[in-house]
Each structure stands twice: as C-alpha cells, then as structure tokens.
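PROTEIN DESIGN WORKSHEET
SECTION A - STRUCTURE
LENGTH: 366
TOKENS:
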C-alpha cells in the first residue's frame, strides 16, 4: 500500500475549505460579509445615536475628525472632538475652545439588541452638547454613520429573506415540474417563461404600484421582499427542472419508488438535495440583485421611507446637485457600502462555485 493510499479520506467540509482558501478574494469576500452582517446585527450598539435622532443646529455637518492633540500643543491618549460654530448659511468651523472626550460604552438612546436584549449602552459617544459625526450629518442633522448602520438592517436582510423565499419556490416548482412532466411541466414552465419575458425593473415598479405608497416602514419592507421574491423564482425553477429531468432516472430514485416512497418525499429527500451545490452558489450570486432591487425602489422614492433608513433612501437624499457638490459624504457613505457588499458577494460566490465544483475537487485530489 502506497503512502498516498494510506492517507485518510478528507471530509466534505475539509475538502470544501481546502478549495475555497485557494482563492484569497473569495476568503476576503466571505470575511467582509461576516463583518457587514455582524455590524448590521449590532447596529443599535455600534451607532452613537438613535436612527432618527435630529440635531436642528447641525444640518449638513461635515465629518468630525478625532483629535489627539490639544489646542495648546499637549498630546493625549484619549481621543476627543472639537465643538463647532457656524452652520445654516455659513461653513462650519472647529471651535477649539470646546473639547469633548470620546467615551466608550456610554449611555444613550434605549434600544433592544437583536430585538430582544434591552440596553442603552452605545460603543462610543461624547457628552452633550457635543456631537460626533464620523461620517458627517445629513440634511436634518442626523448622523450618517448611524443611519448607515440601521439602513444595513433593511438593505442586507432584504437579499437574504428574498432569496430564502424565492429559492424555496424555485426549488419546489422546478422539482415538481421536472419530476412529473406532462401537463404539470407545461403549466409551470409556461408560467416561468411569461414571468421571464417581462423586464425585471419594469415588473418591480409595476408590482410596487399595487401596494399603497403610504405604507408603514415595516409593511413596505415586507412588500419589497414579496415583490423581489415573486420575480426571482422563475429563473431558478427552469434550471432545477433541467437537473431533475436527469436525476429522476437515477438508481437511488428508482429504488425509492420501488420501496413505495411518495413523490413529494422523493423530490424533497432524494432529488433536490443533489442540486444543493448549484443552489448555494446561485443564491450567493443572486443576493446582490435583491439588494440592488431594494436600493432601486428606495432611490425612486417608493421603497422604505424616512425616517426609517435604508441605503436606497440615503442615496435618494444625496442625489441633488447641491449635495453632490458640497456634501459628498452623503453619497460616498451609502454608495461605498453598496459597492463593498455587492463586490464581496460576487467574490464569495465565485469562490463557492469553484470550491463546490466536483471536477475541481477531484482534480485537486488526483
């Protein structure tokens, strides 16, 4: 027996990780997604203020840099920010006579962490009347960093929830269509072709018009998820149907039929699990489309409405020429977040595709 033959067989998890880490971009994308979703879950704690906390004296306040050197030249290990003067029609200037130390785990607006744990502690903040705007303030004096964090709870979860719904429908309908064939296949496939024949953006806008425009934020969020899920299942259903057509003649499927297993059990327990490698990759690649769908609706003003935050309505608030030329942080903050999220999903999806490709895995083992 050779040394190669005596080597222990790797588990599927170890084989997957060995292939995935061959792509540094995929690993970086996965780590970035973990960081983004972690920050979204901890948004009330990481944000120094409440989502709709308005400061009428600091409209369009620029970012406040952290200081480590006092006005008299002395250095300090505790960061602080200067106060500001000006505003309204005057440019803001730092007021070096007022210093506000940055504290950690400060008391602030009450919230429920993860929707369950009551707390009023925030990661950082300054004592009133000081304000800290690490990414500036918007047109009503709301902290852009705070709204970016709270907006991520909408924009990031829309993709995950929408994918969970649409891919469940796509898997089930594609599996049923491919397994039964006949008139069932014809009915389902003609429905998918009709849905796919309508341009996606026009269909999103048309479906959004079915719902009242003055819905509360939570109901608007559910409406957007329902719209994106409704238009997202058709493409997957067609692909799954083709895979099921080839899998339904497999020996393990014929054995299950001979043992008297029901058709639904065969589809759910024996056929669809064998499409999971493709489905996981397809879901990862499709999530950015759902995120951009929410951004598109909110940017048009028919998505999540203020005072609730989303990356889309933050972009909508920054689209005027005055904001673009004078207050660029309002555009750069949500724009950069969307860019990083979409890029991370694409990198991670490409890495998953390569890691779950059985030809690549077998080739690496040889």
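SECTION B - SEQUENCE
RESIDUE ASSIGNMENT:
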């Amino acid at each position: 027996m050779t040394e190669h033959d005596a080597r222990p067989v790797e588990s599927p998890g170890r084989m997957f990780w060995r292939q995935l880490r061959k792509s540094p971009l995929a690993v970086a994308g996965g780590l970035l997604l973990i960081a983004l979703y972690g920050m979204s879950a901890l948004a009330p704690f990481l944000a120094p203020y409440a989502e709709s906390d308005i400061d009428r004296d600091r409209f369009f306040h620029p970012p406040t840099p952290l200081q480590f050197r006092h006005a008299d030249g002395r250095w300090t290990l505790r960061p602080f920010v200067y106060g500001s003067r000006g505003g309204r029609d005057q440019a803001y200037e730092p007021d070096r006579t007022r210093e506000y130390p940055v504290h950690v785990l400060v008391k602030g607006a009450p919230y429920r962490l993860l929707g369950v744990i009551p707390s009023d502690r925030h990661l950082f903040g300054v004592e009133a009347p000081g304000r800290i705007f690490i990414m500036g303030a918007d047109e009503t004096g709301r902290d852009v960093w705070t709204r970016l964090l709270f907006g991520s709870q909408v924009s990031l979860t829309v993709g995950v929830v929408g994918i969970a719904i649409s891919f469940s429908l796509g898997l089930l309908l594609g599996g049923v269509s491919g397994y039964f064939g006949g008139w069932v296949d014809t009915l389902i496939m003609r429905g998918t072709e009709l849905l796919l024949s309508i341009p996606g953006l026009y269909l999103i806008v048309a479906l959004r018009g079915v719902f009242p425009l003055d819905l509360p934020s939570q109901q608007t969020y559910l409406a957007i998820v329902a719209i994106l899920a409704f238009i997202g299942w058709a493409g997957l259903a067609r692909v799954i149907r083709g895979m099921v057509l080839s899998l339904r003649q497999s020996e393990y499927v014929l054995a299950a039929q001979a043992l008297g297993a029901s058709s639904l059990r065969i589809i759910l327990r024996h056929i669809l699990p064998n499409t999971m490698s493709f489905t996981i990759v397809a879901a990862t690649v499709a999530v950015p489309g759902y995120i951009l769908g929410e951004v598109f609706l909110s940017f048009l003003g028919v998505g999540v409405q203020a005072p609730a935050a989303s990356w889309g309505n933050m972009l909508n608030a920054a689209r005027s020429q005055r904001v673009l030329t004078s207050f660029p942080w309002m555009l750069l903050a949500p724009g950069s977040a969307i860019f990083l999220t979409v890029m991370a999903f694409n990198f991670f999806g490409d890495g998953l595709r390569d890691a779950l490709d059985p030809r690549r895995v077998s080739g690496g083992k040889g």
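SECTION C - NOTES
The two ends are 17 Å apart (CA to CA).
Residues 80 and 100 are 5 Å apart (CA to CA).
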